[in-house]
Amino acid sequence: MSLQLNDEAPDFTAQTTEGEINFHEWLGDSWGVLFSHPADYTPVCTTELGATARLKDEFARRNVKVAALSVDEVDSHKGWIQDINETQNTQVEFPIIADPDRKIADLYGMIHPNASGNLTVRSLFVIGPDKKIKLMIVYPASTGRNFQEILRVIDSLQLTANYSVATPADWKEGEDVVISGSIKDEEIPAKFPKGHRIVKPYLRMTPQPNK
Known about the structure:
Layout: E1 13-16, E2 19-22, H1 23-27, E3 31-36, H2 43-54, H3 56-61, E4 64-70, H4 74-88, E5 96-98, H5 103-107, E6 122-127, E7 133-139, H6 147-162, E8 165-166, E9 177-179, H7 188-191, E10 197-200, E11 203-206
């Protein structure tokens, strides 16, 4: 299955380290991050799940629920969590999904045969409260994710979902944003009372509106 941006995230029911979940019901009105790993007890994955656990408060502040997935069984996941907690000095408090029959991996296109015939690559999906896919990133097995970048993208997605703006290159929370091209010049003062500057007719900047 080839998923694209703004497709509905496929729903599924699965066993996890926190019991059985129905994915859409579990998400509720929250944003979601679903990310896959090649296998349990692998070194880069161990650091990634530790990094995710340490960012618990950052995800909660953004109303984001996080779930990981690999093709291993729940019992394997639970044993691995002990290693993650020990080596990464944290506590994993989000579900790790068991997908031994690879049904979820197939739904989300997480198996890339040219990389590995039966293991998930490092796929990551950000899913909105409308259950639509807002972001997809695929990393090779040898490269760990940058979770600060994932938080940055979530900040951008949440901002641009609520205001007629886009975020420029390397944007970070609190920095100026780009006014959407659909907004006419004469509409800007009412919509963006903090002021704006015109760099070019097509490039108009304003302070982040929700700060």
